[in-house]
Design a protein that fits this description.
Strand content: 35-45%
Shape: globular
CATH topology of the largest domain: Jelly Rolls
Largest sheet: 9 strands, antiparallel
Radius of gyration: 22 Å
Helix content: 10-25%
CATH class of the largest domain: Mainly Beta
Number of helices: 3
Length: 282
Amino acid sequence: MQMPSRLGILFNGAALLIAGASVAAAVRYTFMADDIPACSTRYEHGTQFSLARPGGELLTPADLQARSAGTDWGLIENTRVIEARGSSAKQAIEVRFMPAKAAATPADGKMGMGFSWMPKGASKPAAACLTYSVFLSKDFDFAKGGRLPGFLASAADQDAAAGTVSSRIAWRESGGLELRAQIADWLEPRRIVGDKVYILPRGQWVSLEQEIVLNTPGVKNGVLRLWADGALILEKTGLVIHERAPAQVSGVLAETTLSVLAGTTLPKDQKILLSPPELRWQ
């Protein structure tokens, strides 16, 4: 009987190691990732962006603008606060995407709204949890993708609204959820896609939660996670989110936009509903 060659043994051994590592990774993901509870259950302190006055009157677009720290765009033209139906929240922000004229550049075709929210009581946390719900109509057009509210982070001595570090929830042309992040370790914004494909459903409220854990200075231990209706769909670890120390989660970038190609128009007038965002921290 012919004995296996040394080279054959090495190849077979390498194949077994690769197969073993793949199985171990799959087992770890299957049995460990889902064990991470949603961040809203693990962060003790929190505050919600109120959409009503103390007497119960709904805020106007001008009221939203007054609370936006001077960072707003599209609030007056494209938003209003309405009574929410089918959601645990009593009110919601209605964001309208109006059919626009042909755009010369992608920036000209920007639709929706945006503002920054920096709660005063957040105590400059190094980790935080952002929760809100979103509702899309049954015939919502995902267009070329879009973005939803996410995090801003900055150095402690830096203007919070001027920080270039951000992580926003987004959807692709297919409606698949992802994160769009701009962090210190990357020269340009990147898409972060989870191992589990999750298509943002239409015609129902969906609860979204994003967690950010800033890295220790000089250490790659930053974390980004995303849940949809309580299920973990994305986790990215080993990140250098911020290089300057001390760093902090400085607030929420409440931007809701729809992407269109230059020279094209949105086929119809459509809307997104957002429940009041809640920021939690430890």
